[in-house]
Amino acid sequence: KKPDPCTFVIFGVTGDLTHRLVIPSLYNLAATNLLPDSFCVVGVARNGMSNDNLRESLMKGLRQFATRNVDEAIARKLLECVTCVEADPKDPASFDKMRDQINKLEAARKTGGNRLFYLATPPNAFAPISRELGRTGLLAEENGAWRRLVVEKPFGTDLASAKALNAELLKIVDEHQIYRIDHYLGKETVQNILVLRFANGMFEPIWNRNHIDHIQITVDEKLGVGHRGSFYDATGALRDMVPNHLFQLLSLVAMEPPARFDAYTVRSEKAEVLAAVQTQSEEEALKNSVRGQYVGGKIGDTKIEDYRKTEDVKPGSTTETYAAIKLTIDNWRWAGVPFYLRTGKALGIKRTEVAIKFKQAPFSMFSCTAVDRLSQNYLIISIEPTEGITLQFNTKVPGPTISIDGVEMKFRYKDYFKAEPSTGYETLIYDCMIGDNILFQRADSVEAGWQAVQPFLDAWKKAGAKGLENYKAGSEGPAEADELLTRDGRHWRKLG
Ligand code: BG6
């Protein structure tokens, strides 16, 4: 289905996100005939430039970041829709002017007044831009036209700032107009968690505390902080990844079955389970967490220097580049089942997965077997490096004696489906245009996420350098992260 005609307004059009993701996604939608028939893109920059210069810069970005061969005719047709507009929220008159320009463009392009404002800007610009859009009436839904606001991450830096930003935006627009992006929800395998759980009859009956021992969520990255020092040093691994990306995985894995597959119901169940994550005291948070910072090392052939020596990072920084935390969910399904979450930069491997560890068989009659090779009965939902699902179980090794070994049943997406490589943003951008916000974060989920991590943020801030472990770039992270599980008689799932 093609979206309604609309104007796609991008704030931060000269930035990295626009060049790397937004335009390549619009290109992929154009190439698959999923853009509206009447469409125009308004690129807003604080310092204006000519349409030609902007189009040229976007074309350069597209050539560099496209996920498929660029068809010149399609690219040109898309970029011809782009108009550059100069506006700065510090200068209200520029927004008034922009409103008039948009009105004119809409009449010429016959977009019916439908507008999508995409805030691909640094987070401190979200509120000022939205306020100006509100003041100029650009976001007011009228005469049957829709008006939508797409907000990138990070959404706040803690519970208080996320609440303040929500309150601010909700003064200007209604919740149904806000699309808070978390790019994890654009990933096929992440969306597939819902299908795995709720389109099959055999998983859900054992998806609870009676059969599941614990759940591990891992997002390990090889890349260091690179040129993002200034953003990252003020942010850290926990803020950057946990309340958003890891909690998306957690909420999809842990939510109750929604009665209907619609945005209200699905998002309500997700918010409900996040709100049930136990809020820990700062003392508990310290006990249930490990944070680390990388020091120089090697990842493959690439040498990585100490985090503290990274450009724009304070030399004495206590910002964590690795975080591992233990959470519990206070409801009937999950009482007593620990959720262990970990994420870090500059690690030896890139891996994103959810590992569901089932309880061992209650009694083993095979006592004289190679017990140490017994499989751990994991169901692994793998997002990186291979998208797929693996089930580990035990089987008899052929031969006259009873001996047991662990084996795997593996489903890999690429073995079954041929999908064109994508940026992961296409679905999200398309959904914004058709008005389906099921894959976007609602205010209550965002706040519940911050609520759950706030004790860790507070406790770590107070502790400063105390308790910040070092780990070598290229390693598996700080050794202390293992203790978080070994003291519970468990261990992180190893690869291989
Ligand atoms: C971003 C974070 O939101 O997600 C980055 O700011 C991180 O620090 C990235 O590298 C990870 O995304 P993915 O899709 O590579 O797992």
Strand count: 17
Residue-averaged pLDDT, rounded?
95
Helix content: 25-40%
First CA to last CA: what distance?
43 Å
Neighbour order of strands in the largest sheet: 16-15-14-13-7-12-11-8-17
Unreliable stretches, pLDDT < 50, 5 or more residues?
none
Number of helices: 15
Query: What general outline do the C-alpha atoms trace?
Result: globular
**What small-molecule ligands were found?**
6-O-phosphono-beta-D-glucopyranose
What's the main sheet like? 9 strands, mixed
The radius of gyration computed from the alpha-carbon positions, rounded to a whole number of angstroms, is 24 Å
What percent strand?
15-25%
Summary?
The chain has 496 residues and is an alpha/beta fold. It has helices spanning 16-31, 51-65, 72-80, 92-109, 126-135, 159-172, 188-198, 229-233, 236-254, 263-275, 282-287, 413-416, 426-434, 443-463, 480-486; strands at residues 6-11, 39-45, 82-86, 115-119, 147-151, 178-180, 212-220, 289-295, 297-299, 302-304, 322-327, 339-344, 351-358, 378-384, 388-396, 404-412, 468-472. The strands form three sheets. It has a nine-stranded mixed β-sheet with strand order 16-15-14-13-7-12-11-8-17, with helices on both faces.
Task: Record keyword descriptors for this entry.
496 residues, alpha/beta, nine-stranded mixed β-sheet, six-stranded parallel β-sheet, 15 helices, binds 6-O-phosphono-beta-D-glucopyranose, glucose metabolism, G6P_DH_C, oxidoreductase, NADP binding, NAD(P)-bd_dom_sf
